[in-house]
Amino acid sequence: ILEVNNSSLSPDGYRGDTRPNDLKMLAACRKRNLPVIMASDSHGPGHIGDFTWAERILREVNYPEELILNSRPEKIREALRIGEVRRKPSRSRQSGMEKLRGALRGS
Fold first, then answer.
1. Half-sphere exposure of residue 1, counting CA atoms within 13 Å on the CB side?
2. What is the Cα 54 distance to its own chain's centre?
3. pTM, two decimal places
4. 79: closest CA among 42, 29, 37, 32?
5. CA atoms within 13 A of residue 86's CA, in its CB half-sphere
6. pLDDT at 22
7. What is the mean pLDDT of each run of 10 residues along the chain (107 residues)?
8. What's the pLDDT score for residue 15?
9. Cβ-contact 26, 54 below 8 angstroms
10. What CA–CA distance (Å, rounded) separates 103 from 98?
11. DSSP string over the chain
């Protein structure tokens, strides 16, 4: 699951321009039908649940709504079901970050 961080995408954010990296990661995730989740990364009550910039970039790349885990309340409840095995464990010893790096390199 890739977190689409609203605070990082905000024009007044302190991380600089994260859009190019976000676009690459979203393209790699979409190619593999991987889910994403929007996060507000709020450090104060004024921005909790604010997904303005995350929603904007997901719409821009036409990310499939069914792969956005918290696009609707019922979807996040489903994604967070406790005790359910969602898929078989991977036989690969490659970490998720290594797989993402490989996808971004085109391998």
1. 14
2. 9
3. 0.68
4. 37
5. 8
6. 94
7. 90 83 95 92 81 94 93 79 56 62 65
8. 78
9. no
10. 9
11. -EEEEHHHHSTT-TT---HHHHHHHHHHHHHTT--EEEE---SSGGGTT--HHHHHHHHHTT--GGGBTTSSHHHHHHHT-TT---SPPPS----HHHHHHHHHHT-
Residue corresponding to tokens 């321009």: 17
Residues sharing a CB contact under 8 Å with residue 31, sequence separation 6 or more, in sequence order: 103
Task: Determine contact, residues 41/18, Cβ cutoff 8 Å.
Answer: no
To the nearest 10°, report the CA torsion of 85, 89, 95, 98.
-100
Amino acid in the structure at residue 97: M
Chain mean position to CA 15: 17
